[in-house]
Amino acid sequence: MDLVTPDIGLIFWTTLSFLILLFILGKFAWKPILNSVNDRETSILKALKEAENAREEMKNLTANNERILKDARIEREAMIKEARDIKVKMISDAKEEAKITADAIISQAQEAIKNEKKSAMADLKSQMASLSIEIAEKVVKEELSNKDKQLKLVEDMLNDSTLN
Amino acid sequence: MSLALLQEVATVSYGAFAAIGAGLAAIGGGIGIGKIGGAAMEAMARQPEMQGKLQGSAIVLIAFIEAVALFAVVVSFLAMSA
Amino acid sequence: MGTINYNHIKKLILGLFFVFAFSSLIAQEHQEETIKVEEFNITEMIMHHIGDSHNFHILDWNGHPLSISLPIILWTDNGLVTFMSNEFHHDEKGTVVVEKGNQRFTLFHGKIYYANDTKNSNGEYITLDYENHPKNLKVIDLSITKNVFSMFLSIIVLIILFLAAARSYKKSNNNMPSGIAKFIEPIIIFIRDEVAIPNIGEHKYRKYMPFLLTIFFFIWLNNIFGLIPFFPFSSNLSGNIGFTFTLALLTFIITTVVAKKNYWKHIFWMPGLPVPMKIFLAPIEFIGMFVKPIALMIRLFANITAGHVIVLSLISLIFILKTVWISPASVIFTVFISVIEILVVAIQAYIFTMLSALYFGQALEEEH
User: Do A14 and C241 touch (CB under 8 A)?
Assistant: First the structure.
């Protein structure tokens, strides 16, 4: 059947034409067109990527700023807190010191009073001793002169001394 | 009588048989393509977002089925001329 | 093909629609002229229209055919012989002999034979066997026939179109398409993204792009040329088995040449199967290797030829029913079929490209 029998002439011309067409279009059409399309696509991809990067960077920058602000705020708060602590500490320290000083003064005064008292007592004791001796001297002297008088004297003396 | 009939049958051109063969091939191809088309449509209705992909593969599958029917047609052509 | 501008397609289809409506009318008139002369043989008319021819018939004018004669190139026993086809005086019955050198040729039903020395009782210089097939020797015919002429035309159009497109990229400084390239670029990207990359693979597709693009546009344009029913077009090139045979053969050659070890292994020693099964499958797969390109060849041939046959048959309805009143129905159906054919010719070009890419992809597949 003619319809399904390939013609040698047509096969020859088709092969020739197709190969020439493939060569010409491949070299002068497909190559530049595909290259252009590829170049454009890569440049678009690149631009997109760059935009993405820029956005990322921007985001980072904002985040950074926020972080710095936050840090500053935290630092300020810390500083205020520290200052407050120092203040409190200073006051309490001062109070403590004052108390210590006062205590020391008081104890010193007490010590002094004690000492004074001691010395006064010692003084008193020595005076009493000398007084007693004097009395005893006088008594002895009176005894020696008048018996009654001596007795009376002693009694008087004793009455006097109980007043002390 | 019977001999004459036999002779008549023998001289009948193969064209009619070829046409019947082509028709049978068309039935088979029609059923096959119909099934593919129906399934593809159903799939598209179920997943409209896959339409492009389904269309492409449906066309390729139809091409395969069609080739079988076309083979039969070509065989009929050859039989007709034999 | 969703990326192509919808409006463009609409305009294109509408334009072609009118062209078809108009041309169907022309075809009809021309056929009505011939009916007076002889009994109208529809099969012969259809076969003549979808077959090849040595001269390009444009139209009949007052019963005289107006046609362009094409050069005939013959590879004979004595070397190359060339002459114009009008030396046969439009004869296709083998009654006219052209003598070149000491060789005599005659044209019989579209084929050129060495002519007999004397004519037979019908005035033919041809000896026929009992089935009316000529017994004379055929000449190796490398003529520029109607189909070859149409192919050259399509090549010129393709080259002009795509070189213009390529130039428009060079002109623009940011690689943006302009003019015709704007229309072509989506198709090229479609072939790349939907045909080449999914079938061949991201890394290897580049090498096959020129072939796929060329074969797609070559088939598509010739299909469209076949649909246009007036002078420089109207040949049934892509519905000719010689043409599809050549393109399928090229696909087959490329597939076979680039095939990796894995491809051959899948044909002759299918992995992962028991040995008897392997032996059983080897011949099937081996035949399959040839069936694939043959299917490619027959698919394109049969689809395009069928389209032409349907259109011609619908027009022939007028002559089958012998009434002119059927012509509106004929024309409407013809227009309808022609619109479908516009879709079919694009799909056939796509399928040929797609399957070529699929076969390349199979051949290139590595073991995994």
Answer: no
The ipTM of this complex is 0.82
Among chain C, residues having any CB pair with chain B shorter than 8 Å are 2, 194, 295, 298-299, 302-303, 347, 350-351, 354-355, 358
CB C355 within 8 A of CB C300: no
A128 touching chain C per CB within 8 A: no
Query: Token pair 């320290």 is at which residue?
Result: A93
Distance from CA of B3 to the nearest CA of C (A): 23
Number of domains in chain A: 1
Residue A10 inside a domain? The answer is no
A1 assigned to some structural domain: no
**A54 located within any domain:** yes
A69 within some domain: yes
C-beta atoms of C351 and B52 within 8 A:
no
- d(CA C201, CA C368) in angstroms, rounded, equals 14
Task: Give pTM, 2 decimals.
Answer: 0.74
**Tell me: the pLDDT tens digits for A79-138?**
999 999 999 999 999 999 999 999 999 999 998 898 888 888 888 888 888 888 888 877
3-class DSSP state of C64:
strand
C94 and C27 in a common domain? no
Asked if residue C149 lies in contact with residue C122, where contact means CB atoms within 8 angstroms, the answer is: no
**Torsion angles phi and psi, residue C125, rounded to 5:** -95, 35
State which residues form the domain around C2. 1-39
Task: Report how far apart the first and last C-alpha atoms of chain A are (Å, whole number).
Answer: 170
Q: Does any domain span residue B76? A: yes
CB-CB contact of C220 with C228 (8 Å): no
In a domain, C264, yes or no: yes
